[in-house]
Structures are given as structure tokens and as C-alpha cells.
Specification:
With 188 residues, the chain is of the alpha+beta class. It contains 4 helices and 9 strands.
Length: 188
């Protein structure tokens, strides 16, 4: 099973992303755009794992997230990985003080299960598109300007979700397998 842990986005944010992405698709060079309903804040990519890992995570993650508070997430701006001139990924960014602690806790648990630790610090980003070739400078700037103007609503991250990712011809399909609340909170 291909697995990852992420913070899901509220439907209001997904709807705003959907309209923004539609406009970008029409205005920018070709790219593989992510469907708005699939966009999330990745905390830890686990890769291909045996199904037994799900039960192990279900035993360990709740205790690790229990002492960590829900986090206010403010989405704003955008950028490119690795950089605008050699862009392979276009993303929207933001700030969420405290979310890096969630990511560190998950990384620690994953490492105990022989999953490689992250080699970079946590960086809040929403992958919007994958580029086959970097865009011209004018297109990259247009992307940055458009994303900066989206005015995405702030929200509170209250849970981490374990997802299964199935790669299909039309793009990845994500299935939520487990929901783990932070700080013992949970919205039914």
C-alpha cells in the first residue's frame, strides 16, 4: 500500500482552489494539475508499505498527537520546487505554527518502522501542479501573482489523516484509512 499522512483541507478551501486552478489551467503553459479535492498538507510520505503498518500506526500515532494542540493554518502565496528557474512543482504555501511538531512526531514514529527520516525541515505547501518543463519567467510570475491573490480562508488543523494513494490513469486516488485527532479533540 502506498501511504502518507496529511492534514485535509476544509471544503471551502477546496472550492476556492478549484476555481483558482481552473483559471490557471487556461492561462498558463501545460502542466499536470492536481484536482482540488486531492489537495492536502502532507505531514509524512510513507511510501509503499505492508498493510500491517496501518495497525502499528494506529497504536502509536494517537499518543504522539495527544499532547500536540490543534494548529491555525493560514494559506497564502506560492512558489516552486526546487526553484522558479528549474521548477518541477508549483505550490501554494502558508504558515501553521505548530504543524512542524506534528510532522516531527510522525517522522519519529515512521523511523521506528524503518522508514527513512525526512532529510529536510517541514515546509507547509499544497502541491498544485507538476511541470514537465520549467515555465518561462513570465508564466512563473503570473502563477505567483494569481496564487497570492486567492485569499484562501484560514482554518484550524485538528487531525492528521492516514491516506492510501492508488495511482490511476486519471491521477492518484486517495482513500482515508485513519483519522487521528490532535490534542484529543475530534469533530464527529
Amino acid at each position: 500500500m502506498r501511504l502518507f499522512v496529511a492534514v485535509p483541507l476544509p471544503s471551502t478551501v477546496q472550492q476556492r482552489l478549484a476555481s483558482g486552478l481552473q483559471a490557471l489551467r487556461l492561462a498558463l503553459p501545460p502542466a499536470r494539475w492536481v484536482r482540488a479535492e486531492s489537495i492536502h498538507v502532507t505531514l509524512k510520505f510513507l511510501g509503499e508499505q505492508p498493510e500491517t503498518l496501518v495497525a502499528a500506526l494506529d497504536r502509536e500515532v494517537p499518543a504522539a498527537l495527544q499532547p500536540l494542540a490543534p494548529v491555525a493554518v493560514k494559506l497564502q502565496g506560492g512558489g516552486f520546487f526546487p526553484n522558479p528557474r528549474r521548477a518541477r512543482v508549483a505550490w501554494a504555501g502558508g504558515q501553521a505554527e505548530g504543524l512542524e511538531a506534528w510532522a516531527r512526531a510522525l517522522d519519529t514514529i515512521a523511523t521506528r518502522h524503518k522508514i527513512a527520516p525526512e532529510d529536510r525541515p517541514f515546509s507547509l505547501h499544497l502541491t498544485l501542479a507538476r511541470l514537465e518543463h520549467p515555465w518561462p519567467e513570465v508564466a512563473a510570475q503570473r502563477f505567483l501573482d494569481e496564487v497570492a491573490g486567492w485569499g484562501l480562508a484560514a482554518f484550524e488543523a485538528r487531525e492528521a489523516v492516514l491516506y492510501r494513494s492508488e495511482l490511476k490513469p486519471g491521477g492518484a486516488v486517495y482513500t482515508a484509512l485513519r483519522h487521528w485527532p490532535a490534542g484529543g479533540t475530534h469533530d464527529a
